[in-house]
Amino acid sequence: xxxxxxxxxxxxKKTTHYDKDERYMATSDLCxxxxxxxxPSPQLHTSPHTTTQTMDPPMERKICTAILSLLDDESNDVxxxxxxxxxxxxxxxxxxxxxxxxxxxxxxxxxSHVNRSExxxxxxxxxxxxxxxxxxxxxxxxSHTLLDPLVRVLSSxxxxxxxxxxxxxxxxxxxxITRFGSNAPPIWSxxxxxLDVTLQQLSSKQQVVRKRAGSTxxxxxxxxxxxxxxxxxxTLLNRLEDGLTSGGGTATAGECLDTRSVIRxxxxxxxxxxxxxxxxxxxxxxxxLGFCQPVVEDDSDDEDEEAAVLANELREACFTGFESFxxxxxxxxxPQLPAIIRSALAFMKYDPNYSYDSDDEDDDxxxxxxxxxxxxxxxxxxxxxxxxxxxxxxxxxRTICAVIESSDATTTAALxxxxxxxxxxxxxxxxxxxxxxxxxxxxxxxLLRNTVRALHNGNSDNSTIATLMKETYIPKLxxxxxxxxxxxxxxxxxxQTSILYLLTTICSTPxxxxxxxxxxxxxxxxASLLDSNSSSSRSPTKKELKLEALGLFRTVLTGPNxxxxxxx
Length: 568
Known about the structure:
Helix 24 (493-506) runs parallel beside helix 26. The protein is globular, with a radius of gyration of 30 Å. It has helices at residues 2-14, 20-38, 57-70, 76-89, 95-110, 120-133, 139-155, 163-180, 185-188, 191-201, 207-223, 226-245, 253-273, 281-290, 305-328, 330-333, 337-348, 367-381, 389-405, 409-416, 421-426, 434-456, 462-484, 493-506, 516-530, 543-558. Helix content is 68%, strand content 0%. It contains 26 helices and no strands. It starts with a helix and ends in a 10-residue tail after the last helix.
């Protein structure tokens, strides 16, 4: 026992050595020793906090002081191992020492001294490590120690409070709420106060603070009562209504930024509380739709670029919200689905800085032959940094994808017919941004898969859907897909892989890939993809693409939906 104490004392002495390597090794060894103390002996059946044969209270305090001082070390490596050691130390020492560490770290995080600013991130990591590591039984003590200083900083109306301090306080508060928010009396007794201070920070002039506040509110929404959640949602909606009546997309830059932050916060709340938000959907969706009005095509060339960027960010946030509502509140959002689908379909085509061929609206002409030239011409354009409209299109497409994934048989039938989703998706093969193009292909694949499932389940609209697919969509999709998978195609491997998966899904439809010429064309190009020595191949085919091509080959040859006379 005395020898072990001497070993600890020797390691503590080396943690102050002038050589950073010595300090690093001593701290690492100390971490190993603490890990042994943190692991209870199976013979003694003791908890981690009773294995203190070699760590009496004075030794514990010395180790805590040493580790805290190492967080200030000039070496980043030493700081990192000190943070790791802190996580082990917290499950080894007594609760009194844990609370002292928490109080000390909180003071360092919230300290405004300029010499501490560069170390604040390290202290914040240490404090969040403490919150994640301490036993649940210590939740009350740790929460009581940390909560008041955090609330004091966040409720301060002083303009001199450093933004990094506010950010750190919000991050720590979010971790504290996530770990102990539902069972620690010091926290749940102050839910209303916490809601007030976080909503106050959501109105900050700093965008980064508003974003962090929205994340913290998302953590708080999980644990607060239904009454407080309703108050939170009403507060956010009132702010959105004020932003909508003040001009929406024509508002000032500051108003747009604030509105975007509120919308993002609402999306975060929706993602964390799920069905609890359902009662407010009827009010939320129309407000979001108000920020996604159709774009006027004849705007003047001197339109404020900053306002356009902010309007796009607003639309992006709104469609992210729609996707969240559809996935988390499918029943409550159902009456609003037609309006959401119309808006998503409109902005799925929103590309104000590029003019697509007006004739390429996916009629049965030669539009697919011109697609290659369009993609080749777009390569240089995609490098421009000032066009972020593709983010709006991507979020709109993902909203459609969420609708497809949450649809029942009746809704799936409507997506082919009156809603026009299938037709609009088929028309977006010409999309120039690959992220959006792949999402379009994936959405079509999911729609086909859901439709086949509905047909197998005996939906009453069987004949209508089957006729639409056979006479209109499948021939068109197969023709376009064949153009994409040609070895001489300028499409990327990612796009071609998605197309091969789409073709594999088409094989499961009642009519399969269609006629003999269509099947032959598909298999010919797929065979070329598998032939690494093909003269038409631009580069060696990657393994994933080859595997998908082989899977399609097998499905075509063995599938029950093709005429045996057309098989090879």
